[in-house]
Task: inverse folding
């Protein structure tokens, strides 16, 4: 039944990461309970709330609800939990640290990782999208991303970054195929990138808490909204289904709040 569920999800044009997550949720539930009943679903929801963060709880619930649709037991679907949004953004890399990191990488001729950091920070891409970028996309100046529900989002490569990356690729004699590869020529993994970024942060004395792939996506959004106050455009660029998701970038980080407080309050 799980394999049939998996195939059913594929027909909905969901990403493999999403499909794997939904299947995990169902397998986890079935490992706890032999039957699918309202009481068991409530018990599973309670278990999730006690052991996981809000976003993960809702992701597991979404997976189980999808399965209930699949087996035509939609009446048993359970509600998501409410997640209280924080009034600030936490652990977002500052412009100073972002610039320091890529400048140091450039100085040390660590060009491969220089461009990893630059592409993350200048395009706002997810790390899963970063590893899909090919030389052909750099030449075009964009890559079209097919997201949930078959929607297409265009990821733009800014002209200055495009020109610099083309020179890098020419030097490597690599004008076709994936641009971020390991020594064996295989495409980098999302986990490998996250691990190496932490190592680079440690090597260069940058706070490791703010150096992770998604942090650079946050930095892109923060910088964009400060220079171009068009939140609807930013929502499109980020691939957000709701503009409410994008509004988080109107908030300040703790560091930014502290800087404003120190500057404004003189009484």
Result:
């Amino acid at each position: 039944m799980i394999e049939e569920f998996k195939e059913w999800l594929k027909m909905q044009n969901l990403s493999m990461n999403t499909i794997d997550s939904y299947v995990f949720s169902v397998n986890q539930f079935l490992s706890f309970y032999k039957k699918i009943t309202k009481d068991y679903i409530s018990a599973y929801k309670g278990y999730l709330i006690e052991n996981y963060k809000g976003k993960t709880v809702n992701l597991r619930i979404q997976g189980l609800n999808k399965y209930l649709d699949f087996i035509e037991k939609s009446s048993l679907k359970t509600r998501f939990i409410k997640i209280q949004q924080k009034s600030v953004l936490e652990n977002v890399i500052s412009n100073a640290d972002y610039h320091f990191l890529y400048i140091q990488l450039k100085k040390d001729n660590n060009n491969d990782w220089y461009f990893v950091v630059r592409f993350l920070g200048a395009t706002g891409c997810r790390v899963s999208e970063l590893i899909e970028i090919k030389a052909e996309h750099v030449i075009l100046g964009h890559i079209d991303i097919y997201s949930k529900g078959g929607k297409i989002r265009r990821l733009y490569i800014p002209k200055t970054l495009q020109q610099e990356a083309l020179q890098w690729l020419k030097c490597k004699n690599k004008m076709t195929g994936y641009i971020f590869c390991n020594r064996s020529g295989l495409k980098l993994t999302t986990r490998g990138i996250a691990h190496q970024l932490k190592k680079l942060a440690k090597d260069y004395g940058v706070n490791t808490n703010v150096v992770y792939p998604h942090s650079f996506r946050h930095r892109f959004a923060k910088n964009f909204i400060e220079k171009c106050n068009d939140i609807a455009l930013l929502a499109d660029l980020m691939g957000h289904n709701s503009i409410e998701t994008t509004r988080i970038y109107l908030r300040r980080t703790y560091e930014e709040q502290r800087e404003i407080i120190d500057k404004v309050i003189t009484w």
Notes: DSSP finds 14 helices and two strands in the chain.
